[in-house]
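Researcher: Here's the sequence for the chain we discussed earlier.
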Amino acid sequence: MDQLETLESQSIFILREAYRSFQNLVMLWSIGKDSTVLLWLARKAFFGHAPIPLLHIDTSYKIPEMIEYRDRFAREWKLNLIVGQNVEALKAKQTFPDSNATRLQCCGRLKSEALKHTLSGEWPRRVLNHETGEYDIVEGGEPFTGVIVGARADEEGSRSKERYFSPRDQHNEWDVSEQPLELWNQFKTDFAPGTHVRIHPLLDWTELNIWEYIERENIPIIGLYFDRGGGKRYRSLGCFPCTFPVESTAKNVSEIVEELRSGKFSNIAERSGRAQDKEDFSGLETLRRDGYM
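Model: Thanks. This is the structure I predict for it:
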């Protein structure tokens, strides 16, 4: 097997192991390249069907094209899609764009808190109704304790400390020093009651691997990643007030692969266009300890 086949096989194994080991599973879908590759792998792992519900945390500040892409593919692929949101923080304008929070505080409210309370079922969830094409509001949903995430170890410093099966406490808080050993494909999946577990099937993939796989599989990726005439494109996607494009003329997947292979971005962090990272001198570790994706 070549490198991509080895990575694919490992990720599919992790997905199937998670499905076997945990009852209340959900998979995060941020609409970006990594979580879309993760979704593609899940459909491969389960023979064209994604049996695990998907969760998108909508901050209301996502680039509009991301929401259009989300809804189009959720309907086309018949995905069980759940959307969570911190409605109260948005109503109270306790956000960075409203000048009432730092970027980190805004991420904490609109992402970490929204994720925590949507997973627990404490906050309403919007669930895509495939008959009407609209979202139904569901109150008091069953808690999700296993969360599949498209994080990669090479993406930024705190993610390199993760495990394939990474425990959190009952409040979704992460203790970096309490991560289990994972040796020779032996994974701990039996955790104490009340433990929340994050599962990372893409942990050993690199940014180049992701784009090579997108090219090989012809995965439909959102157009924001490509230069559409202005000499700029997004390398990482997030909320529009805090995410900025990079200088690049790559107009398709092969040109992005070539950029990564040639070293154009070899010394530039993938998330260098994400302004909130610059506020956290621990990388994203401060946010991740509190439940950030």
